[in-house]
Amino acid sequence: MENVKISFLGTGNAVPTEKRNHTAILLSFKNENILLDCGEGTQRQFKIARISPNKITRILITHWHGDHILGLPGLFQTLAMSEYSKTLHIYGPKGTSHYISLLKNLVNISIPIEVKEISGKFLETPDFFLEAHQMEHGIATLAYSLVIKDQIRIDKAKIKKLKLPNSPLLGKLQQGQDIIINNKKIKSKSVTYLEKGKKVTIILDTSFTNKTIDLAKNSDLLICESTFSKEEESRAKEYKHLTSVQAATIAKKAKVKQLILTHISQRYENNPEIIEGEAKKIFKNTKIVKDFDSLIV
After folding, report:
1. From 67, 150, 155, 178, the catalytic residue
2. Are 129 and 17 in a shared domain?
3. Chosen domain end from 163, 192, 221
4. pLDDT tens digit string along 78-133?
5. Is there a catalytic annotation at residue 178?
């Protein structure tokens, strides 16, 4: 099973700080490089991280608040000047097509773009699928999951022991079909095994809702906003954001394996351990990230 690499290009919230830029998260899997949100300055963050923005294949938009999308015009121009040759697929909530049209009027977007407003499972390949659930943030807002599918793998040791040749017959076994070779029947189940897939869920700006738990269920990794501490739950409710305790509660109820906290407020610039500590009391396997951190799932 190939890994998913997650690069955190921006981990702050509405106001950037010296240490944290606006939100941008890059998910890399096989030939896919999926950028989730594109806060102001994201093109510069790519440079600092030494990642070529030309690798981007898709952009997922959670919602159209400025701190999540104001980096798009600059990124589009950078891609154009870098001779980006692919079609850039952009997905987002209702209104995304309209806002991209406005950006086209603002800057000269000369790269090929395809825009889709989506919900539920919206992209599927033989290896993975993407799904989105509606969140509650005052405007149309989505959270996303990347699901790597289970795969049937050939047990090479068993194949070698049976002296089976490297031929298209192995492909049939991998597809679950029994084969006959040298007048002997080989059952697929006897020489294959199931490699479990992976699930990465990203939940950013939203109020606490059961929809967050449904989307995150059984994720290997949950990346979740944690804008407020538990002491500011009333403000979190007012601004339709999550507290550290609520993020940890989602992780616990969804039975995820690991929780990553992001979208950190400027008020915790010098003491982010407050947020992390509160969450860890509820969900132990929790970590707060900073700009340019990366991890492998």
Report:
1. 67
2. yes
3. 192
4. 999 999 989 999 999 999 999 999 998 888 888 999 999 999 999 999 999 999 99
5. no
Domain span including residue 81: 5-150+196-292
Helix (H), strand (E) at residue 104: helix 96-106
Question: 116-125: long-range contacts at Cβ-Cβ below 8 A with a sequence spacing of 24 or more?
Answer: 116/89, 116/90, 116/91, 117/91, 117/92, 117/93, 118/91, 118/92, 118/93, 118/142, 119/93, 122/91, 123/58, 123/91
- How far apart, in whole angstroms, are the C-alpha atoms of residue 155 and residue 151? 12
Please list, residue by residue across 5-23, b when 16 or more beta carbons sit within 10 angstroms of its beta carbon and e when fewer do: ebbbbbbbbbebbeebbbb
Cβ–Cβ < 8 Å for 285, 257: yes
Residue 211 Cα distances to 25, 145, 166, angstroms: 21, 12, 47
- Give the pLDDT confidence of 196-234 residue by residue, as tens digits: 999 999 999 999 999 999 999 999 999 999 999 999 999
